[in-house]
Input
Amino acid sequence: MDKNKNIQLLEQFFNGSITKQEVKQLLNELKNDEFEKEWMKDQWDQAPEMMNKAVQKQIMANIKADIVPTRTFKMKQWLAVAATLLLVLTTSLSGYLLYEGQNKKLAGDMTVTVEKGQKVALTLPDKSRVWVNSGSTLTYGSRFNKHERIVELNGEAYFEVAKNKKAPFIVESHGFSVEALGTAFDVKAYADEKQISTVLMEGKVEVGDALNKINLTPNQKVTYNRETKSMHKSDVVDGLIYADWRYNKLNFNSETFENIASVLERNYNVKFVFEAQSLKKYRYSGTIGNTSLESLLQIFAMTSPVSYHMKDSVIYMNENKRMLPFYKKVLK
Output
């Protein structure tokens, strides 16, 4: 494909007149190093007159020789912008093909799976925004339309729901549901945990199962026991801290070490083994920032009678018997 045709296809992409086959062709061209060099050269030739002609000529000679200039800040900056633009173009084109493919699966569902140690932010077809936490899956599609907006969650996600009074937004998780029209809330519902929790930040939601439902107002939390089908509603000081995981911050309020370990397993993609079962009942409060797992384990070891050793991605926890008497004395 010639250079002029590529430029023409780019223009068609931006004005919305490109075909799916042409997008595929353009993506293939963008992966070609020669096309990248030619495209950047054309952009350079069209750039404003910002520097001395002799300097420009020398820089162009360096580009042709595949040497990146190191002394001319403006050129480095311009090349970075051009390279970023190419990356954005490639991502946009790939997203276009993915969107087109999804639209053809009208009867199917889209499942977003987030691996341990990862987080994903996405925008749903109604413009609602969702942040999906580590080790979670979010499914939507066939029941997400102009009459209803139903998503299924296994794990944790934070929702900022676009307002639409004609189509309630419903999150379903293991027999528990959260219904909203336009609001912001966090839902935590992992399959391996007995409890499901919802914290409301803005607006109003109705939560519960098929037999019992209650309403929440901002800065309220409900905890649902999947085994007993019971719900407990409580007030929280600041609901937003329950969604701080989006920024790699974890908040614990008198949480057991067993529950904290489950959270850390998902966030750091590791496995905790408690060689001393008594450690599971230890409780901790505090905020964990964006820190390494090793630093975090050292904090636990310094502030409580625990010891640990790591082998590959498995962390073995045990009691530090030397520190245990001092720890019990402090707690009295």
Notes: The chain has three domains: 3-104, 110-239, 248-331. The domain at 248-331 is CATH 3.55.50.30 (Phage tail protein beta-alpha-beta fold). The helical segments are 3-15, 20-30, 33-46, 53-64, 73-104, 257-268, 293-303, 324-331. The radius of gyration is 27 Å.
